[in-house]
TrEMBL record:
GO CC field: Golgi membrane
A molecular function GO annotation: fibroblast growth factor binding
Name of the protein in its database record: Golgi apparatus protein 1
Cys-rich GLG repeats: 237-297, 366-425, 489-556, 561-620, 681-740, 748-808, 864-931, 993-1053
InterPro entries xref list: Cys-rich_GLG1_repeat (IPR001893), Cys-rich_GLG1_repeat_euk (IPR017873), GLG1 (IPR039728)
Membrane topology, from the record: Single-pass type I membrane protein
Signal peptide: 1-26
Compartment(s) of residence: Golgi outpost; Membrane
Membrane-spanning ranges: 1098-1118
Keywords associated with the record: Glycoprotein, Membrane, Repeat, Sialic acid, Signal, Transmembrane, Transmembrane helix
Species this protein is from: Esox lucius (Northern pike)
């Protein structure tokens, strides 16, 4: 420790002289105090070293009061009088400057005293006497060679282990002497001579500098050491032996800040200002000053000195006395300095110590509280000042200068670099990114948010309001803040700081302490992880967490699942990180290009992932896979979509709380939200989010978890190589429909798949966008005809149905196919099922799903029928009557009759357009002719009854009579409730109808009404009582009851109801009119007209007379012809004679 050369002996008591230069242990003195120390000094004659010959007598050292008079002389002061008398010439006493010059010349005397004091063998013998027990305990010192000052040096090195009080006091005083000048430190000047000169740290000649300035040489060397570590421009490579000497000096001065001369003199005033009540020793003053380093009142010189000290601690943790002492046992216990694979210098680094001990803590090992407290302080220190991390200074220099200049306090620079690292400002160098990631691991702010001072200050108000139920410093504080991200309680500054930190935590799963604690076993078993403080360059950021969440959602059949506790934590992290795409390392890494290309304008929270999902087909392969995997996870656990869950909170609480409370979500919650998408609790944000997820799901059947799990085997067997969900649904539903129509004994699609398939089909029917082919085909028509119609509730589909005559051919074809499916399976008719929901419960609870519309039609005219539902049923009836293919019951009942009687119409038909009721009209006419099969006749009768009440149910009438109805029957057509008034109006105005097509249709109506009274509801209602009284025994159908009433009308003995009589007479008149204007289309029509004519007897008599005349004429012509033929020669007659002679004649 001391300068190792032989000098004349000095007395131990001279040591007290130093007290006037350097007060020991920080004793605070009043301004007017005088401290005296009277010492008897006996100095031998001047030796070769140039020390003064002798100083005898008492020496009084005093600190005089500060108050001085104008005639004050230094020589008159009691504290200086004896020294001046002894050391300075008499003629200089009256001149203060001369006195100062004299004393300045004598400082070499004091320095030589101290030099000799540290190396004198007699002084060493005192040390042996005072520290006898200690020397025996410290083996290194016991074996030191005596007589060269090495023993004292050894004791100073090990003074932290000295427990003997007298020895400790002695070595402490000796340390203060040694550290007052670097030249007194054993071997220091020899080891650092060249570096001092190279770095221009000052002259090493004795006496050139003041005592208090000698610490600047060591400070200069320390700064040089820091510059070298940071690889600053112009940095000098300090020799290894000098480096060790510098660090050793720093270590030895770590307990008492007085021993760091440069820092002591730089921070004297700051110590008084900030640490007045902090006792010196055990590094307490250092820690106090570190805590106030960024205070506004801290002097710049002191802040600089403190920063240098901290940088040395970063290079060697032993430079911090309190840290080295508190963690000594734990370092040894967990073998934190036993790694033979690393150089010794690295083992001493603060970062290595922190990582090693943090690893022990995270593994559940015990680290004493005092050590953990020290670690917390230094982790906070690293986060506060980026310059303490050489790698940050070295690799992030460009980013700091470009984006973060001027932000050097309270962690602001580090957070600025984090913001750059997130990509919010510019691209960041990979080495800088790695340095930031390493620093975050060293500081480990995820374990205690208070370590990050910038975050702590920014989020204090949020923590006090939103997270006040969590213990201060608990790791769950960060989780709580994430849960309140983008809520009303979150403030903007906190949001930024939080996302900046979470970006780096997300890239190393170990930095979330709760996740690491719960999942370290699973990660080791399933993902082959390393220890907490071990990293693999080959492992991409976020890879371990990706591995964990892939296993979190595996089924028991797939095997190797996560433990329950780990799965809960993985789900928590997924829910939180879904708020920002940059918190998913895999997503950001593979999708950076696509984010810039497709989503540059999507800056709001959650929009970037939605944008990527919208452009799924356009993404590059790797990005598409990542987005697809994440979407697949969302389908199983929609709570990952945190923003959507917040928006849907009201409807979840009202309608889906049971499935939401389940710990294991298997797609039930999203299914519930879809089913309740139009409840009153549903807000726009939630509805939009749910619809968006539905639109994403149609791109891949894997995105519908329940559908995937129920149908994956069926898809592989029946629909291989089909990926899009809508195509899979069509494939499977077509298979189900074909099997049903063909009455196969065993359905090819499994029961569980059919059940889920029904759910998917019903969901798709709600929004045209969920059927991409239909939507693409009709996009132009939607913009033209349904521009202001909302997509939900199948409103756009309904709009297109109402405007089908104006649709483009492509859209019309698709809509026809859709209606065909809906009529076969009315449950897929979303609007019908929605509007008639209550009526279905009232009338059709026992009806099969496929017969739902039939049931509603049968109850349409019930007094309990809801008007809106009735209107919707009428719309569907109108649609059905436009084409027999849209009426499955009619199609099935008349499958033999249609090709038999209406083949000419079928030949002209196309597969993608309606027949406009031509086939139905054809069948109606055959019904009047009573030529239909019984089943078909029943169906046509119902159609005739319905269309007789509402002209809109007769497509051909509408096609041909629209203008005539507007001209002749406007009031009847405008009536809300159609009860046959329009048909009655047209019948009465038959002769006024100008359009031939319309006239023909009205004539057909009249013809049909003659076939059966049931198809004339107006007449049937008027004559209901008369039928009951006079025709009860006559079965309905084939015009039998109509004939009965006609006979009753002609029978004067029968008295019919006036209304019935009037209506019947009207019908007879109408038929007369019809007979006049309607040409007979065939012999049957002619016969019918004759039979129904009032003059049928006359007509029949005339027909009979004509037949007789024709017969007689034939007889006459026949005989003449025969005679002529007989007279012709050579003609053989083959015909027998008209009259054959009697055989007996």
């Amino acid at each position: 420790m001391a300068v190792c050369r032989r000098v004349p002996p000095l007395l131990l008591l001279l040591m007290s002289i130093v007290l006037y230069v350097h007060p020991i242990r920080g004793q605070k003195l009043p301004n007017n105090a005088i401290v005296k120390s009277v010492v008897s000094v006996d100095v031998p004659a001047q030796n070769q070293g140039g020390v003064a010959a002798g100083i005898n007598g008492p020496v009084v050292v005093a600190l005089p009061p500060r108050k001085r008079t104008s005639g004050w002389k230094l020589a008159e002061e009691g504290a200086c009088r004896d020294d001046l008398t002894r050391l300075c010439p008499k003629h200089s006493w009256n001149n203060n400057l001369a006195v100062l010059e004299c004393l300045q010349d004598k400082k070499e005397l004091l320095w030589n005293y101290k030099l000799n004091l540290t190396t004198d063998p007699k002084f060493e013998s005192v040390a042996v006497e005072v520290c006898k027990t200690t020397i025996n305990d410290i083996k290194e010192c016991a074996t030191e060679e005596r007589g060269k000052g090495y023993l004292v040096s050894c004791l100073v090195d090990h003074r932290s282990n000295i427990t003997e009080y007298q020895c400790n006091q002695y070595i402490t005083k000796m340390t203060s002497i040694v550290f007052s000048d670097y030249r007194l430190i054993c071997g220091f000047m020899d080891k650092c001579h060249d570096d001092i000169n190279t770095l221009h740290c000052g002259s090493i000649s004795t006496g050139e500098k003041d005592v208090h300035s000698q610490g600047e040489v060591i400070a200069c060397l320390e700064k040089g050491l820091v510059r070298e570590a940071e690889e600053q421009p112009g940095a000098h490579a300090i020799r290894d032996e000098c480096k060790k000497a510098i660090m050793r000096v720093a270590e030895l001065s770590s307990d008492d800040f007085h021993l760091d001369r440069y820092l002591y003199f730089s921070c004297r005033e700051d110590r008084e200002r900030f640490c007045e009540n902090t006792a010196a020793g055990e590094g307490r003053v250092y820690k106090c000053l570190f805590n106030h380093k960024f205070e506004e009142a801290m002097s710049e010189r002191c802040r600089e000195a403190l920063t240098t000290r901290q940088k040395l601690i970063a290079q060697d943790y032993k430079v911090s006395y309190s840290l080295a002492k508190a963690c000594k046992a734990d370092l040894r216990k967990y073998r934190c300095s036993m790694d033979t694979n690393m150089p010794r210098a690295r083992e001493a680094r603060l970062s290595y110590l922190l990582l090693c001990l943090e690893s022990a803590v995270h593994r559940g090992r015990t680290v004493v509280g005092e050590c953990q407290g020290e670690m917390l302080d230094y982790r906070r220190m690293l986060m506060e000042d980026f310059s303490l991390s050489p790698e940050i200074v070295l690799h992030c220099r460009g980013e700091i200068e470009a984006h973060c200049s001027g932000l050097h306090r309270k962690g602001r620079t580090l957070h600025c670099l984090m913001r750059v690292g997130r990509g919010d400002m510019a691209a960041i160098d990979s080495l800088c990114q790695k340095a930031l990631q390493t620093l975050i691991q060293e500081a480990d702010p995820g374990a205690d948010y208070r370590i990050d001072r910038a975050l702590n200050e920014a989020c204090e108000s949020v923590i006090q309001t939103a997270c006040k139920h969590i213990r201060n410093g608990d790791p769950m504080i960060l989780s709580c803040l994430m849960e309140h991200l983008y809520t009303e309680k979150m403030v903007e500054d906190c949001e930024h700081r939080l996302l900046e930190l979470q970006y780096f935590i997300a890239r190393d799963w170990k930095l979330d302490p709760i996740l690491y604690k719960k999942c370290q076993g699973d990660a080791s078993r399933l993902c082959h992880t390393h220890g907490w403080n071990e990293t693999s360059e080959l492992m991409p950021p976020g890879a371990i967490f990706s591995c964990l969440y892939r296993h979190a959602y595996r089924t028991e059949e797939q095997g190797r699942r996560l433990s329950r506790d780990c799965k809960v934590e993985v789900q928590r992290i997924l829910h939180q990180r879904a708020l920002d795409v940059k918190l998913d390392p895999e997503l950001q890494t593979h999708c950076m290009t696509d984010l810039g290309k497709w989503c540059s304008e999507k800056t709001e929270s959650g929009q970037e992932l939605e944008c990527l999902q919208d452009h799924l087909e356009d993404l590059v392969a790797q990005c598409r896979d990542v987005v697809g995997n994440l979407t697949e996870l969302e389908s199983e656990d929609i709570q990952i979509e945190t923003l959507l869950m917040r928006a849907c909170e009201p409807v979840i609480q009202s309608h889906c709380h049971e499935v939401a409370d389940n710990q294991i979500d298997t797609g039930d919650l999203m299914e519930c939200l879809v089913q309740n998408k139009h409840q009153k609790e549903m807000n726009d944000k939630c509805a939009v989010g749910v619809t968006h997820f539905q639109l994403v799901q149609i791109k891949d059947f894997r995105f519908s978890y329940k559908f995937k799990m129920a149908c994956k085997e069926d898809v592989l067997k029946l629909c291989p190589n089909i990926k899009k969900k809508v195509d899979v649904v069509i494939c499977l539903s077509t298979t189900v429909r074909n099997d049903t129509l063909q009455d196969t004994k065993e359905q090819r699609v499994s029961v569980k798949c059919r059940k889920q398939l029904r759910v998917e089909e019903l969901e798709m029917s709600e929004d045209i966008r969920l059927e991409p082919e239909l939507y693409d085909s009709c996009k132009q028509d939607i913009g033209r005809l349904c521009q202001n119609v909302a997509f939900g509730n199948a409103q756009v589909i309904e709009c297109l149905k109402e405007n089908k005559r104006q649709l483009t051919q492509r859209c019309h074809h698709r809509m026809f196919k859709l209606q065909e499916v809906e009529m076969m399976d009315p449950e897929l008719d979303y609007q019908l099922m929605r509007v008639c929901k209550q009526m279905i419960r009232r009338f059709c609870t026992e009806a099969d799903a496929k017969n739902m519309l039939q049931c509603l039609k049968q109850n349409k005219n019930s007094e309990l029928m809801d008007p809106k539902c009735k209107q919707m049923i009428t719309k569907r009836q109108i649609t059905q009557n436009t084409d027999y293919r849209l009426n499955p019951v009619l199609k099935k009942s008349c499958k033999a009759d249609i090709p038999k009687f209406c083949q000419s119409i079928l030949n002209k038909a196309t597969g993608d357009s309606e027949l406009e009721g031509q086939v139905v009209s054809c069948l109606k006419l055959k019904y009047a002719d009573q030529r239909l099969s019984p089943d078909c006749e029943d169906q046509i009768r119902v159609i005739l009854q319905e269309s007789a009440l509402d002209y809109r149910l007769d497509p051909q009438l509408q096609v041909h009579c629209t203008d005539e109805i507007s001209r002749l029957c406007p009031e009847e057509a405008a009536a809300q409730e159609q009860t046959g008034q329009v048909e009655e109006c047209l019948k009465f105005n038959l002769l006024k109808i100008k359009v031939e097509g319309c006239k023909k249709e009205v004539l057909n109506i009249l013809k049909e009404s003659k076939a059966d009274i049931f198809v004339d509801p107006v007449l049937h209602t008027a004559c209901a009582l008369d039928i009951k009284h006079h025709c009860a025994a006559i079965p309905p159908g084939r015009g039998r009851q109509m004939s009965c009433l006609m006979e009753a009308l002609q029978d004067k003995r029968v008295r019919l109801q006036p209304e019935c009589k009037k209506r019947l007479q009207d019908r007879i008149d109408m038929w007369s009119y019809a007979a006049k204007v309607a040409p007979a289309e065939g012999f049957s029509d002619l016969a019918m007209q004759v039979m129904t004519s009032p003059s049928k007897n006359y007509i029949l008599a005339m027909i009979g007379m004509g037949v007789c005349v024709l017969f007689l004429f034939g007889l006459l012509c026949g005989r003449i012809t025969k005679r002529v033929m007989q007279e012709l020669p050579g003609v053989a007659l083959n015909c027998p004679p008209l009259t054959e002679p009697h055989r007996g004649a």
